[in-house]
Design a protein that fits this description.
7 helices, 7 strands, globular
Length: 195
């Protein structure tokens, strides 16, 4: 039985969950993945898609309490054997897919339009980045601008920055249009009350 404070907390968190998804392609370091999941929970993104076409599959629900501060248990996951499969399902659901990368064809994060409710942000392997397919099949490419000698950030830092910018843009536009629908909120409320 939950206390009134716990029920209030669940209600508040569910009300602030927003539409969208994060896709992690071939992540090698489980702790990096858990740190991304912590950011997903913090910014209210419920859905995480994990693609394992080149790396060994892992299940974030089984480990990672220290890295994610238990955020992993509050999220929904799907597992995919190819980026084509993952993108195909997201496109069928009406998602716009924006992959993070570096290069002249990428839009800088602060200039990217992140206002589409069904937006999926894609992050690639810590060493190799995105696969060619993940890049070419995305609807757009975004990048965090680099001003130093090093041309990339840690995966979890990049994800946190992108999720912050997505949330900032949506908050300025009116967050109510990005909330989960009442059915999704009801289902989530029931799930959260089981913990």
């Amino acid at each position: 039985m939950h206390t009134p404070d716990r029920i209030s907390r669940i209600e508040a968190v569910v009300a602030q969950r927003q539409q969208g998804a994060v896709v992690l392609e071939n992540i090698y370091d489980r702790h990096n993945a858990q740190a991304v999941m912590r950011s997903c929970d913090a910014f209210g993104i419920q859905r995480v898609c994990l693609v394992f076409s080149r790396e060994r599959r892992f299940d974030p629900r089984v480990f990672g309490q220290r890295s994610s501060s238990s955020a992993h248990k509050w999220l929904h996951y799907s597992f995919h054997e190819s980026i084509e499969e993952c993108y195909g399902l997201l496109h069928e659901e009406g998602f716009r897919i924006l992959a993070t990368d570096i290069g002249p064809d990428c839009v800088e994060l602060q200039d990217a339009d992140l206002l589409e409710p069904k937006t999926a942000l894609v992050f690639g392997n810590e060493h190799r980045g995105l696969t060619r397919s993940a890049r070419s099949l995305a609807d757009g490419l975004i990048t965090v601008p680099m001003r130093g000698m090093v041309q990339s950030l840690n995966l979890s830092v990049t994800a946190a920055m992108c999720l912050y910018e997505l949330t900032r843009q949506r908050s300025a536009a009116g967050m109510e249009r990005y909330a989960l629908d009442s059915g999704q909120q009801g289902q989530l409320r029931e799930e959260f009350q089981l913990w």
